[in-house]
Specification:
It contains 5 helices and 4 strands, in the order βαβαβαβαα. The chain has helices at 25-41, 60-70, 89-108, 122-127, 139-163, and strands at 16-21, 49-54, 75-83, 112-119. Strand 3, helix 3 (89-108) and strand 4 form a beta-alpha-beta unit. The relative contact order is 0.21.
């Protein structure tokens, strides 16, 4: 029977960086709280979680690159919030953030997840940082769940390579 990588991994022994943008701090604070709870619920020890605050979503990729290259982490979780305004600024910040985070993962081989809310209104952002799950839900929980799964997957793949 083929080996299956677990879909609900145990986080014991895995190390994570949680990067939180401070712009829209009430919203990103709820994302960070949910992310940290998700990690500890999965068995990740507090000592295995590095929390870094950055000014805004635009700074997340730069920090993610520094962490992925310079820290011993299994995954990086980027949390932020960008709300559309009257100018094209939203498009630039949201686009650069998404593309930059993806590039960090591709260049470093460290999974980087995007828990950055991109909303048309503050009400939409609040709905995506609340207590609920499913549609709307909390993007901190969702991106942390993805980071746990990716870290476990990468660890399993590395273990398979060593056995070969």
């Amino acid at each position: 029977m083929p080996e299956t990588i677990p879909s609900l991994p145990d986080g014991t022994g895995l190390r994570f960086a949680v990067l939180t943008a401070q712009w829209h701090g009430e919203i990103t604070g709820r994302l960070q709280t949910a992310a940290l709870k998700t990690l500890t619920d999965a068995g990740v020890k507090d000592d295995d979680i590095l929390v870094i605050e950055v000014p805004g979503a635009y700074e997340l990729p730069q920090t993610a690159m520094g962490v992925a290259k310079g820290e011993d982490v299994d995954a990086v979780i980027a949390l932020g919030c960008v709300v559309r305004g009257e100018t094209p600024h939203f498009d630039y910040v949201a686009g650069c953030c998404a593309e930059g985070l993806q590039q960090v993962g591709l260049e470093t081989g460290i999974p980087v997840t995007m828990g950055v809310i991109t909303a048309n209104t503050l009400a939409q952002a609040e709905a995506r940082s609340g207590d609920g799950t499913g549609k709307g839900g909390n993007k901190g929980i969702e991106s942390t769940d993805a980071a746990l799964r990716m870290a476990a997957t990468y660890r399993t793949l590395e273990s398979r390579r060593r056995r070969s």
